[in-house]
Amino acid sequence: MDRQKMLQQLDDVAQWDIIVIGGGATGLGCAVDAASRGYKTLLVEQDDFSKGTSSRSTKLVHGGVRYLAQGNIKLVKEALRERGILLKNAPHVCHNLAFIIPSFHWWQKWYYSIGLSMYDLLAGKLSLGKTKMLSKKTTMQLLPAISPDNLSGGVLYQDGQFDDARLAVNLAQTAVEQGAAMLNYCKVIALNKTGGNISGLVVEDVLSGIKYTLNGKSVINATGVFTDNVIAMDDAGHEPIVSPSQGVHIVVDEKFFPGKQALMIPKTDDGRVLFAVPWHDKVLLGTTDTPVKEITTEPKALQEEVDFIIKHCNRYLSTQIGHGDIKAVYAGLRPLIKVKGQKSTAILPRDHTTIVSKSGLVTITGGKWTTYRTMAIHAIDNAANACKLPKQPCVTDTLKIHGYTQHATSDATLNIYGSDAEKIIELSNQQPSLKEKIHAGLPYSNATVVWAVQHEMAMTVEDVLARRTRALFLDAAAAVEAAPMVAALIAGLLQRDDNWQQQQVSAFTAIAQNYLAH
Question: Which of 160-174, 271-285, 328-342, 469-483 has the lowest mean pLDDT?
Answer without folding.
Answer: 328-342
